[in-house]
Amino acid sequence: MLTDHQPHTLKLDDIETKKLTLDKLAALTEDPMCDVHVNENAKLCCSTCGNLPVCVICTYSKHKGHDLHDVTELAKNERKLLEPKLAELNKHKVKLYDLPKKVKDTTIKLKESVVNVTESVKKQHKEQAHKIKDKLAEVTNVRERGILSIENLRKVEDNQTSSNFEKELNQLREKYDNIRKTTKWKYDDKCKGFKEYCNRIEEQLSRKVESLDLNLKNLTTKKELLAKRNEDELKEISESCEQIINRYENFTITSSSVLSSNDDWTDVQCIPDIRAACEPLIEEMKKEFPDFTSLYVFPISDITKVTFDDVTETKHEEPVIDALGIKGKRRWINGIASSGEGHFVITGIESEGYTHITVINKKGEVVRKDQIQNQRSRSFALRYCCSLSNRTVATACLRDEVSIYDVHSGVLSKRNISDVISDWPHDRFVSCVAFDPLNSHIIVGTGSRYMYVFDDQLRYSHTITLPDVIKYSYDITVHRGSLLVCDSIGKRVYAVTMKGNLIYELMKAFLDVGDWIPTSVCTDKNDLIYMLWSTYFSGKQRCILVQYSQNDRRLLTKREVDGEASCITILEVDGTDKLLIATNESIKLYTCGIYPTSVIPCLKIKQSRTRAILR
C-alpha cells in the first residue's frame, strides 16, 4: 500500500543529484490519500510512523495511540527548524564561492615561481662555472710561471757550474760532474713536486666542477618534485571545492523549491531529509584549507658558492727583548722555555766545556744565570730545555745528560742516560727534550730513531722507537697526547704516538725556493702548532715561522723572521700569550702576538715575501 504514496516521499538522492523534477514536485503538492484507506483523504500526519498521512478512521484503528499532528502545525514547526540551517549555509556561501578564485590565482603564482626558480638556478650555475674556469686559467698561468722560474734557476746554476768547470784543473772534472748531477736531481725533484702540487689543485677544481653540476642536478630534481606535489595538492583542493559547491547548489535549489511550494505536506515530507543532508555539508564548508603561499614558494637553497682560499702571510713587526747580561763572544741559545710569572729560561753554549742556564724576566733582565761544566764533552756542548712547571724546567745536554733545573734556587739535578741504558752507542747524543704533562714524563730526543723517557724524578721509564722514515729528532713537542717530531735529515715533520707509531706528516707546500728544514716546534693553550723552518739559499740564511691548525694540520699563517731564529716557545705575560723567538749566535729575543685562529687552506704558492721582523 505504501507504493501508492511513493511520489509523496522526497529522497535525499534526488536532492543531491539535482533529480528533483517538476513532475515529482507536483506530485508532492497533491493532497495525499490515506495509506490504509486509499479512498480517504489524509487529515492528519502520524509522526510515530515518519509523518505518514492518515485519515480519521485510522486514528481509531491502526494509528490509535500514535503521535498525530495537524499537518499545518507540523509543517510550521519543520520550517522553523530549517530556517537556522539555511542561515548558517548562507553565512559560509561567500567563502565557498571565493575559493575557486584563490585556487586559480595560486596555480598561476605556482607556474610563475617554477619559471623564476628555473632561471635563477641556471644563472647561478653559469656564474659559478665561469668562476671555476677563470680559476683554472689562473692556476695554469701559475704553473707556467713556476716551471719557467725553476728552469731559469736550473740554467743559471748549470751555467755557473760549467764556468767553474772550465776554470778548474783536470783533477776536478769528476767533482763538477757530480755537482751537475746533484743539481739536476735537485731541480728535477723541485719541478716534479711543483707539477704534483699543480695537479692536485687542478684535481680539486675539477672535483668542484663535478660537485657544482651534481648540485644543479639535485636542485632541479627537487624543484620538479616539489612543483608536481604542489600541483597535485592544488588539483585535489580544486576538485574537493567543486564537489562542495555542487552539493551546496543542489541543496539550495532543493530547499528553495520545497519552501517555495508553500505546501505543508511537502514541508513535512522533505524538510527532515533536507536537514539531514545539511549537517555534513556544513561540516565540509567549515573545513579550513591550507595556506596557499606554501604551495608556490620553493624552499630550495642556492647553488653552492665556489671559494678559493690561500695561506695568510703576516707582515706585522714585533718588538725585541734585549737580553741584558747574556751576550758574549761564545754564548749561543739552543733552547728556550717558559717558567711562569712572565719569566723564561734560555739554555745554550757558554764557552768551551761549559753551558749556561739563564732565567730572564719579561723586561729582558737576567734574574739568575748558572754555568754548568760538561763532564762528558770538552768541546762546545749544546743544552736544550722545556717547561715542567712554574718552578722547574727539564734540560738535556750533549752527550747524554738529562736534568731538572729549579728556577728559584738554581739547583740542577741530573742523570746520564748511558748509566741506565746499557746499549747507548758512543756516537749517540741528545738533541732535544719535551715534557708530557698527562703522564708526567720527560722525553729526550736524540740524533737517531730512539727517544728515552724518564719520570719527573729522573727515573728511567722506557724507550720509544720512531718509524723508519724519521732519522734525526731535531726538536719535539707534545700535542694532544702525541709527539710532533722535526726530522732535520728527512726535512719533514711527523706526528707519532707515544708508542712510536706514525700518525701523519705535516705539509710544507707553502715554502718557496730553498731546501727547508724544520728547526723548532711548540704549541699554545689552544693546541695550535707553531714551527720554524730554515734554509740557506744564495748565500743567505732564511727562516719562516708557520702556524698550523689543531685538528687537520692545515697551514694558517706564515711570516719570515730573523734568519738566525733557532727556537720558539709560548710565554704568558699579564694573562696574554706571546710567541717568543730566540736567535742563535746574535742572541736576540723577539715577541710576537698569537696569530688568528681562522683556518685558510693552502691552495696556491704566494709569490711575494714578507719582511723579516726588525730589530
UniProtKB/TrEMBL annotation:
The keyword RNA-binding does not apply. InterPro entries: 6-blade_b-propeller_TolB-like, TRIM45/56/19-like. SUPFAM superfamilies: B-box zinc-binding domain, NHL repeat. Residues 122-247 form a coiled coil. It comes from the Eukaryota. The keyword Membrane does not apply. Keywords: Coiled coil. This is Putative tripartite motif containing 13-like. It comes from Stichopus japonicus.
